[in-house]
Amino acid sequence: MDAVAALNEIAFWLERGRAATFKVQAFRKAAAAIAALEPDELAARARDGRLKSMKGIGDRTYQVIRQAVDGEVPDYLQDLRQRGTGALAEGGGELLRTLRGDLHTHSDWSDGGSPIAAMAEAARVLGREYLALTDHSPNLKIANGLSAERLMEQLDVVAAINSDGTTGSGATGSGSTAGNNFRLLTGIEVDILETGELDQAPELLDRLDVVVASVHSKLRSDRTTMTRRMLKGIQDPHTNVLGHCTGRLVEGSRGLRPPSEFDARKVFAACAENNVAVEINSRPERQDPPDELIQLALDAGCLFSIDSDAHAPGQLDFLQYGAARAELNNVPAERIVTTWPLERLLEWSRG
Question: Residue 306's domain spans which residues?
Answer without folding.
Answer: 93-350
